[in-house]
Design brief:
InterPro entries: DUF2069_membrane. Keywords: Membrane, Transmembrane, Transmembrane helix. The chain is about 80% helix and about 0% strand. It has about 140 residues and is an all-alpha fold. Helix 3 packs across helix 5 and helix 4 packs antiparallel against helix 5. The longest helix is centred in the last third of the chain and has 49 residues. It is elongated and about 75 Å long.
Length: about 140
C-alpha cells in the first residue's frame, strides 16, 4: 500500500536533495562564493542539516515531518540572499539553495502523504468505535 514505486522515489529524492543541500552549502560558503575570501564561519549553516539526515535515510516519519518545516529556513535564506547579494555567483548559489529546498520539501511531503491518510483513517475508525460504545451504555 504505502511502498509503491513512487513512494520509494520520493524517499530517495528526499535523501538526495538533503545531501545535495549539505554539499551545496559547504561549497558555496568555502569555495564558490564565500562571504569573505578563504571562507567564513557561515559554512556552519550546513551542520544543522546533518541532524535529520540519519532519520531521513531510515524513513523516520517524525524526522521527515519536522525537517520539512525546518528546511524552510534554508528556503528563506536562499530567497533573501538571491535577491540581495551583490555578488552574482553568490546570488545564483542562493537561488540554487532555494530550488534544492523545494525539491526536498515536495519529496518529503509526498513521501509522508500515505502515512497521513492512514493515520486519519485509523483515527476515524477509533472515533467510530468509541461512539458505538458510548451509544450502547
Amino acid at each position: 500500500m504505502m511502498h509503491g514505486v513512487l513512494h520509494k522515489y520520493f524517499h530517495w529524492g528526499a535523501i538526495a536533495s538533503l545531501v545535495t543541500l549539505i554539499i551545496w552549502c559547504v561549497l558555496w560558503e568555502t569555495v564558490i562564493a564565500p562571504l569573505q575570501p578563504g571562507g567564513s564561519w557561515v559554512v556552519l549553516k550546513a551542520a544543522p542539516l546533518l541532524i535529520p539526515l540519519y532519520g531521513v535515510i531510515k524513513r523516520d516519519v517524525y524526522t521527515l515531518q519536522w525537517s520539512s518545516m525546518v528546511i524552510l529556513l534554508y528556503f528563506t535564506e536562499g530567497v533573501v540572499r538571491g535577491y540581495s547579494d551583490t555578488n552574482a555567483t553568490s546570488a545564483l548559489m542562493a537561488w540554487g539553495e532555494a530550488a534544492i529546498v523545494c525539491v526536498y520539501f515536495v519529496c518529503a511531503v509526498l513521501y509522508l502523504r500515505p502515512y497521513k491518510k492512514a493515520a486519519k483513517r485509523m483515527a476515524k475508525e477509533l472515533l467510530e468505535k468509541v461512539n458505538k460504545v458510548s451509544i450502547k451504555k
